[in-house]
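Please, does this match?
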Amino acid sequence: AKRLMKGLTTAQAVAQREKYGLNAIPKKIVHWYTILLKQLTSSMAIMIEMAMLLALAVQEYEDFAIIAVLLTINVTIGFYEEFEALKKVEGIKSALAPMTTVKRDGEFNKLPTSALVPGDVIYLRGGDSIP
């Protein structure tokens, strides 16, 4: 009961974090080459690629070059838009990181929920989500 009154010390919290890690689900890392591959295998890109192969098969090299340029433009724009959107979503997620009121060293402080460790005493009010 006495521990509940004080909460963990900062040193205890650091030791718990080293033992258990952050209180967070690991982020799925999306590499640039997976975005590029996704763009090259989209239905629109496949149709353009088929037209490009058809132009090559009938030896229409000028059409082949024009279609190749169109494919490159299409993939480049799609890649750029998706890459920028992912960066913005990550920025929004980090800006909206949930905070929790935790008792550390005998005082209540707001900390990111990812900083919670086993043994922390948290303060919940009506409407708070449980971390």
